[in-house]
User: Fold Cation-transporting P-type ATPase B from Cryobacterium algoritolerans.
Amino acid sequence: ATPTALLVGTGRGAQLGILIKGPQVLESTRRVDTIVLDKTGTVTTGRMTVVATVAIAGLDEVELLRFAGAAESGSEHPIAKSIVTGARDRVGALPDPESFASADGLGVQAVVDGRAVVVGRPRWLIEQWGIAFPPELEEALAASENRGETPVAVAWDGRARGILAVADTVKDTSTEAIVEFRRLGLTPVLLTGDNETVARRVGAVIGIDDVRAGVLPAEKAEVIRALQAEGRVVAMVGDGVNDAVALATADLGIAMGTGTDVAIEASDLTLIRSDLVAAADAIRLSRRTLATIK
Ligand code: ADP
Ligand code: MG
Assistant:
């Protein structure tokens, strides 16, 4: 009887838009009491747009976008894609970078027209690259964070050149999913590499007060382990390369169908529609299936 019940569970799962790696997965969902959610691309659409461009005095915004867009053209990150699109809209064709490297959860560095360009998290530019921001950029940075946007800093040849602010939107199903998680007895936690202000704002919109922001990709798994060390059984939902280790570390890893292959491979479940409500459905379904077996 057991195998049949498990097959029913996985078949129904497929109908609900959930791919289950194997019947053994159902067992791990039973004791889950905490659900950790990545922000960008999981709770939000991840379709970002450049909403503000601020260049230092004397620099043309088009020039700022041209260097930033070219530097980001080698990156798959949703922020990078939005900057490339925003730059092409304003500049037209972008030059190909002569070299390119990306730092997970931080930003990119590239050589564009012979200039060493760095684009990424403002704190990374300050701490790693020794970039100083003039007061007008400091103000632009703070203003954009206060508006709930993600500011991205741009520098070349050792000097800050400007700020690009990007923003995305919370998926309309995310709030409903949080209500469902709580009904299932799960405590939601929001986990992100993004800044605290943006993260708290998204948390407030969807109803999560446990917000862990500014977490580097390598540290995401540590957050999962720390929760497990408290005796919690943890499900994690994510989409990015930066979530893969955390997804594998969690007791139940759930990937967004729109996510990267690495995230999907590291997970036990994949949500085809990339809708968090399906994660709640998956957990409810597994529990019911297990109850049928018993
Ligand atoms: P999340 O955990 O919400 O999915 P990430 O870990 O992917 O976010 O990114 C964390 C932060 O790192 C971003 O908010 C951004 O500030 C910075 N960042 C990462 N990649 C890039 C990039 N290619 N260009 C600019 N900024 C980036
Ligand atoms: Mg993400």
